[in-house]
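Students often ask why we bother encoding 3D structure as a string. The short answer is that it lets us treat folding as translation between two languages. Here is a chain of 212 residues written in the first language.
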Amino acid sequence: MRESALEGIQRMLGKIDVLPVPPRVERLLVRQAAKMMDRALPRQQGHGRRTAALARRIGSWAGLSPDSLHHLTLAALLHDIGLLALPPALVPDAGCLDVQAYAARQSHPRLGAESLEPYRFLHKASVIIAHHHERWDGSGYPYGIRGTFIPLEARILAIADAVDAIQVPGVSDDVEREKAAYRILIVGAGTQFDPHLVEICAQRPALIVAVN
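And here it is in the second language, the structure alphabet:
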């Protein structure tokens, strides 16, 4: 199922690649591809859409140009596409993983980037996806690069991805989740996350609220 889902998404992206459409229409069409990912990865339903909204908000606060925001949005919508290239036992739906399986799953940013490289309109997005699990201190994956060697858009996507993934037991209220998210960002500043981006977020709250 997951292999056919990936192939279906790639066929759709191939059609978009040859269409002379403006960026806004590209984003709308890629959102449809993200919905196809939702069907293949039901436990992550809506994650790409929410992560894209968060990433655009942070990117705007960080002063990204409209072109950079566009490519960041495409990357955020498709950032987990590499999971579809993994064996079913390694995807998040599979539950707990042993050490070897977890290490294998760390290849999904690279696999995702490789799956998007053939499409010209996704060249920049594929680079962002390749690095969205790198960490500021260099302990991330798949390449272990650090600091400003990580593309800025990938550092923004890393924050947006982490914030949307936060689950607080017994808490469903967005305001409370947002408080927890800021605590996690502050603790991870300088290790997992770009400290300057965390500072920008801390100065301008309302990350999660109104995104869902």
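Translate back mentally: The chain has one domain: 2-203. Keep this in mind for the problem set.
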